[in-house]
């Protein structure tokens, strides 16, 4: 029997898009030291890889690869390993622009198509670009752009991209595990996410669900040693879960436990329902407290919400410190021209936590 009482309570809830608040069950899993060469540990890695494929609704034409580092490391591993022709990067926030930064540094030819941060990526624009620019070989999209919390129309865009037979790369960092994504049905070639997002693990590694046929083309073509996605895959395949370099054993063990929690909750469908319920309750309560959403509510994801400052004299730092003292940590805004802040509702939190947050915000006086 596991004694979760050994795990101390957190000082505050992380109402952020990741890292996020994790359960005692997940944190308890990190109390054991593991050897990276041990068969028991490597079997955990293999189980994780298989479970990720199940969540993505894919068959054995796909594989999954775990990669050390944050989600950005995963994105860069895909870019640096598989992209060698012109790529169309669709952006309506900071993480789309980060893709362009990666492409620029790696000297990958790219076209950055930027959209207003309050609007979803336009499927019609994607169609128009692909009809005109025959040099484009791949298309990259951020599914849930946590700059604002907007959810881009993945299904529409995927259909257009695949109608042109282009490689589709999806940043599913803040959506995979919290929103159902049928990777195979949509024709996604590479989907990237991270351990410390909707599956509710802790930071330490990213992961990629990849179409094997496309991954095979990356052999001996990576621009990095440590971020070589193909070599990482072959090592995990040939070594039955072995990583090429030292793996974050504690994070891996915690993630395995987090996957068990996801199953116990009822899978992605039930988690989506919980996230959505909390997000809608949050928006309704914040409005009552005098805080307006930055984007149209119809475009919201159930992951994180961006709110405008309520008044000219509002000082976010004071607000942040007050909430932290009451047991809540939120995020500053990530927009350059507008004063905003963000509140996430993913992680090991419940509706009662959102209700407590709203009561606390109602008591804030500046």
Condensed summary:
The protein has 366 residues and is of the alpha/beta class.
Question: What would your notes on this structure say?
Answer:
With 366 residues, the chain is α/β, with parallel strands linked by helices. It has two domains: 24-263, Aspartate Aminotransferase, domain 2; 267-363, Aspartate Aminotransferase, domain 1 (Alpha-Beta Complex). The protein is 40% helix and 17% strand. The protein contains 13 helices and 14 strands. A seven-stranded mixed beta sheet has the order 2-10-9-8-5-3-4, sandwiched between helices. Strands 11-14-13 form a three-stranded antiparallel beta sheet, with no helix packed on it. It is globular and about 60 Å long. The model has no long low-confidence stretch (mean pLDDT 96).
């Amino acid at each position: 029997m596991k004694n979760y009482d050994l795990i101390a309570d957190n000082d505050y809830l992380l109402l952020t898009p990741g890292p996020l608040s994790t359960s005692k069950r997940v944190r308890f899993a990190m109390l054991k030291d593991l050897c990276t060469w041990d068969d028991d540990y490597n079997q955990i890695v293999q189980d994780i890889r298989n479970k990720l494929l199940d969540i993505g609704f894919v068959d054995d034409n796909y594989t999954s690869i775990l990669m050390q580092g944050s989600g950005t490391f995963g994105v860069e591993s895909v870019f640096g390993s598989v992209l060698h022709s012109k790529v169309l990067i669709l952006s309506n926030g900071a993480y789309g622009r980060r893709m362009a930064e990666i492409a620029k540094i790696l000297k990958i030819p790219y076209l950055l198509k930027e959209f207003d941060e309050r609007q979803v990526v336009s499927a019609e624009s994607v169609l128009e670009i692909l009809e005109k620019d025959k040099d484009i070989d791949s298309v990259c999209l951020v599914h849930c752009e946590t700059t604002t919390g907007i959810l881009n129309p993945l299904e529409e865009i995927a259909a257009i991209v695949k109608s042109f037979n282009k490689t589709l790369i999806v940043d599913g960092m803040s959506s995979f595990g919290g929103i159902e994504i049928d990777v195979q049905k949509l024709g996604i070639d590479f989907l990237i996410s991270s351990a410390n997002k909707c599956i509710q693990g802790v930071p330490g590694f990213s992961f990629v669900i990849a179409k094997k046929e496309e991954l095979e083309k990356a052999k001996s073509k990576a621009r990095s040693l440590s971020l070589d996605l193909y070599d990482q895959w072959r090592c995990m395949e040939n070594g039955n879960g072995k990583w090429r370099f030292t793996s974050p054993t504690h994070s891996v063990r915690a993630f395995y436990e987090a996957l068990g929690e996801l199953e116990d909750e009822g899978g992605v469908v039930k988690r989506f329902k919980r996230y959505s319920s909390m997000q809608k309750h949050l928006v309704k309560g914040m409005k009552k407290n005098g805080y307006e959403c930055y984007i149209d509510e119809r475009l919201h994801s159930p992951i994180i919400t961006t709110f405008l400052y309520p008044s000219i004299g509002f000082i976010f730092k004071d607000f942040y410190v007050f909430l932290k003292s009451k047991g809540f940590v939120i995020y500053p805004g990530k927009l350059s021209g507008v004063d905003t802040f963000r509140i996430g509702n993913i992680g090991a939190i419940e509706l009662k936590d959102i209700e407590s947050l709203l009561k606390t915000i109602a008591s804030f006086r500046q």
